[in-house]
Each structure stands twice: as C-alpha cells, then as structure tokens.
Model the fold of this input.
Amino acid sequence: MSNITVEDLNVWYGDDHALKNINMEIPEGEVTALIGASGCGKSTFLRCFNRMNDEIGVARVEGSIRWKGVDLNGEDVDPVALRRRVGMVFQKPNPFPKTVYDNIAYGVSLNGRGDDDMDQIVETSLEQANLWDEVEDRLDKNALTLSGGQQQRLCIARAVAVKPDVILMDEPASALDPVSTQKIENLIEELREEYTVVVVTHNMQQAARISDKTAHLHLGELVEFDNTDKIFENPEEELTEAYITGRFG
Amino acid sequence: MNAEDLGEELRKGSGELSRRRKTALIGRAVTGLCLAIAVVFLGLLIFDVLRRGLPQLDWQFLTTDVKGFNPETGGVRNAIVGSVYLILITMAVAVPLGVATAVYLEEFAKDNAITTGLQRLVENLAGVPSIVFGLLGLAFFARLMDFGTSLISGGLTLGLLVLPIVVVSTQEALSAVPDEFRNGARAMGATEWQVVKDHVLPAALPGIMTGSILSLSRAIGETAPILFVVSSFIRGVPTALTDGFLALPYQIFYWAQLPSQEVQQMAASAIIVLMALLLTMNGVAVAIRQWSLSRRQW
Done:
C-alpha cells in the first residue's frame, strides 16, 4: 500500500497558524476532495504534498507526510525530485507561453526522458486529458491561444506526461465555464484509475460528484474525514453538516 | 422622478454637473499648457541646433578626423568611432553584470535585511552624479589599474555608471513575469535555475533588451564620466583597448568652449550627429517594445 499518511502536520505563516495538527490518510488510487470555507487552509495543505510551501519564505511546516516509507517533509527530501512524482494543477490555467507541443515536452525532457518518442508521449498525454482531438492540428500554436478550459486540460496533460504517482489539483475548474468544468470533472474520474488525486474545491456538488473521500477543514483544523457519501449524507460533525448545507462558508 | 425632473438632470449645462465640467476644463487647460511649454523649449533648442549645425554637416564632416589644431579643417570621424567603441565596451560590461545581478536579487536572493540593503544601494547608485563616476574611473581604472587615458578606462567607467540602471530596469522586466509561470515550472520538477533559464528570462527578454538599450543610450551622451580619461588631441581611431580615444559628447563640450564662431557651429553639427545616434538607439528600443507587446499573450 502506498497511501499517504499525514501525521501531526502544522503550518505557520509567520505567526499565523494556518494548519493545526492534521492527521489523515490519503488513499492510493482514489480521489480525495478537500473542502472548507475560504482561508481554512485547504490550499496550504495541498501544497504540503509537493513542498510548494518551500517557495513561500515565511511558511514553516512541521510534522510528517509519509509516503512509500519516506517523510516528504524531511530535510533530506529534494523538493525538485518530489515534484516529478507529485504533479500539480493550479486554479488558474497556467500553460507556458510556448507551443502546445512544447508545454508537454518541457516536463518530459526535464525528467531525462527526452530520448523517448516525444511525439508519442505528447499524443498519449493529450489523449489522456481528452484534448487531443481539439489540438491535434494546432500542436505548434502558442498554448495561450487555446480557450481557458483547453488550457486547463493542457496543464493536466502536462502533469500526466511525466507519469507522476499523485496529482494535486487546486480548484482546477473554478475559473472555467460549466461545459469546461464538466470536461475537467470527467477527466478527474478517469485519472482515478491510474493516479492518486487530491483536489481542493469550493464546489460542494463537485466534491460529491468526483471524490471517493472528502476532508472538511475549518480554520486550519481537520473537522471530518470520511467516505464522500457519508460526509454528504450523514456527517458526524455539526460543523460539516452546516458547511455542506450552505449555512455558512 | 417625473420626466421633467429627469430631463433637467440629463440636460447639459445645469447645476452641479456644469461646475464639475468647468473644473475638468481648467484641468485640461493647465496640463496642456505645461506640455506646450516643454514642447516649445525643446523645439526651440532643436531648431537652434539645426540652424547652426546643418549647413556644414556634410559627408566630409562625418568622414574626416578631428584636427587638434585648426579644428575648422577637420570633422568628427574618430569621435563617432570612439563613441561607438565606448558603447560596445559599456554594453559588454554592464549588460551581463547587470542582468545577472538583477536575476540574483529578483529570483534567488532571500527576502531579508541584507537583500533589502543591497537593493537600496543599487537604487542609490543610479542617482550618484556622473562626475563622481568620472573621478572613480580616473582613480581606479586609469591610475590604480594603470589603463591610463584609454578606451578601456572610458568603457569601464561608463559601464559602472549604467550598471545600476541596467539592474533596476532588468528587475522590473523580471517582476513583470507572472508567478504562474514560475509555479507551473516548479510543479513540473524544474530547479530554480531551470525556472529562470527556461521561463522567466525568455519572457522578460524584450523588457531587458529595451531597458539595456535605453541605459546605453544614456551612456553615449555622457561627458562627465569620461572627462578625465578622454584624449583631447589624438590622430586616427583607436585600434586597441589601451589606445587613447575621442568621443562625441566630449568633442561637443570642448568645441563649444572655443572662441571661434566656426568651431562652435561645428559643435552644433556634432550635436546633430549625437542626437541621430541617440534617436536611432531609442528607436530600436521602442521597436523591440512594440514588437514584443504585439506578440505577448500574457
């Protein structure tokens, strides 16, 4: 089993205690949704899995995240190496201002797989992201000429191209229209078969539709973590009940 | 609100609105007048220079060397060549050093007191009077390093002069690159160096080029920094870095002080040559800017 085990995780931004004693286990090969009101720490939590908090000078992370026998938060872990195993898709689509092809090829060549058949990798990755049919004849066009939804699927294709084990998504559909959102959600469903997915979302229905497990965070604390069905149908905690029924947040 | 009141409110020239309109009119008039004053003086200056300088500005003036004695019989060829060489050395010194410094400060340096201190230092260096750089050049490059009054002394001095300007303009170009690119590349497993080399620098390149060219065009017009290392009397063009040199701004400064009416008119001709050089460089900078803005999609 290579579940990801989070133990006593704490994050501070300066004096601001952003995550408090988080303990949970992210199951391998399933989709875990992180929900909670704005500022609850869910994006901060997500960034712990690929050490993106390292890039924020004032962030301090304590506790452990164990995966395949390694503490991802350990001093001896190289964040660069980690990010090649744990991909990330951001809230705002952020393809590089390069061609569609080069957007995929960049990460692949970073990983020293430049000798493989790049054309094949590009095609496979775009197919996995359900984007191939739309960009097949535009591979040499600048990625920023694509629509927002296409850009986001390109970012997902870019992430899967390097064959990570885990894919982190930070509100991947929040900047997109309903049709594009639908496509991203379908894509997440498909990704579940090959990857462990952790997705932050503001959208309750989305969490309910796409995830196997759901974690509810509130003011930096993990309120409840359980099967998604349970969370949405019969939550243990009053706070979770209140949040998912829209009484606050 | 009935139709009559609404009509009154929407009609021009009524009540509060007409007062605000008057204020706006005054604002436009005052700022427009300021612009007119600036343009008129600049226009007069250029007109005067052209009037005095154009008549004797011919091909011979451009292709004949400066004559130390009887300057009336000479031209500005070696001063133009000297200025062009100077700018090439300045570029070779200031651009790589300045861009690298800016990349370090903007992309790698930790956000702490030392970095902030360095940052303020660079900004203040950009404001140091250019004559101070001239004295530094004399003391350090000409005397201590024993380069004497030579092209290399002048180029290095001008390089130091524009270095902080290159740093600041490069930093601005780098900070205009959205963080999304940086984070996207990091999340793909790029090292900080790869992030900078593969994404930040390419995206910032047009801005860096524009800023650098504008800095260099400032250097080419400077007299004070090279005042102590330029040669007043010299024949021909420099053929080595350690050769003495002439430069356009210095030649203008020198000629303008001579009593001969004729030589003073030659100073005006040299000003036209220098302005043409400056406008060309600035034109290139503007062209790069326009071209990159039209291509840029972020």
